[in-house]
Here is the input.
Amino acid sequence: MTEIAFQKALQKPKLAPTFYFIGVTTGKSSIMKVFPLWMKELGRPDIVIEGINCKIHDDPQVYCRIVAFIKADPNSLGGLVTTHKIDLYAASHNLFDYFDRYTQITGEISCISKNEGRLEGHAKDPITAGLSMDAIVSKGYFGRTGAEVLIMGAGGSSVATMLHLMDKPDPSDRPRRVVIVNRSLPNLEHMREMVVAHGTDIEVSYVHNQDPVKNDEIMSRLPDYSIVINATGMGKDTPGSPFTHAGLFPRHGIAWEFNYRGELDFMHQALAQGESRQVKVEDGWVYFLHGWTQVIAQVLHIDLTPELFERLDVLASTVRR
Ligand SMILES: NC(=O)c1ccc[n+]([C@@H]2O[C@H](COP(=O)([O-])OP(=O)(O)OC[C@H]3O[C@@H](n4cnc5c(N)ncnc54)[C@H](OP(=O)(O)O)[C@@H]3O)[C@@H](O)[C@H]2O)c1
Here is the structure.
């Protein structure tokens, strides 16, 4: 259970079966405490977790070296990718032998695993973001309320959330309109390409912006009951919030912070309006649980039944911070 710079991680073959966590500040994640408890519960206490910290939009060579090492080293079982899902896919897709349907649609990898000698890439976020959203938003919510969705950030988790919304078969589970805001163009374009290729009746607006005052204006135009998602990593990976303290959340709306640790400025801004504007506030803990359990099940080839998820949820709650 260690956190290491990638150069050091890739020097020697692993002595113990190793599961990697490729992220930005991996050592601070609750998974470092949760993972050993879960491995004990799953009867695999021999498996260790190692965090590999990369810079946001790191050198493509970094991603290639990590993936090549995991592929070649017999004791490297696979791992979970956060933040670098799109960049890792772009840099290293040639090293994989198989991609699931969601990786092909989204162009991102959140799960690296092995199966009979093949290196596999899965995009689990459409499943895990979906499971988490379904836990927050009740059936028929959009049809009932006319709510729209504002997604701050157009990275891997936003793409997954968008895909989940587009794939909802019942029209009352799809918002009429989604606004996606991103600070630079490549991820916004990637999102647009994915949405156009997939096809949807949802009206999607793409906004290239990182000015919080303009974000406040965009948020102020949302109808009541709308959902505002912070998928920028601001408040954890980088300081601050995409909104100013003057930004008004939609009345009766839902503010969903994708993270559960860090300063969480966006979440605190929303909490401050909990009563005055009847804003319901959610953090990323349930997303964390679904995200990790789905990837671990894939890497270890276990059947994640609802009963097993429940047991893992209870264990994780004992060390939540
Ligand atoms: N709770 C959980 O288990 C869970 C699960 C998934 C994700 N998350 C968290 O959610 C966050 C996003 O994850 P991700 O995988 O989608 O990351 P990502 O792929 O790095 O995407 C983040 C996106 O936000 C954009 N962005 C950053 N600051 C912005 C700003 N001020 N205004 C507008 N856009 C901005 C980035 O723009 P650029 O294109 O310019 O870089 C990037 O496209 C991360 O902090 C991650 O830890 C948590």
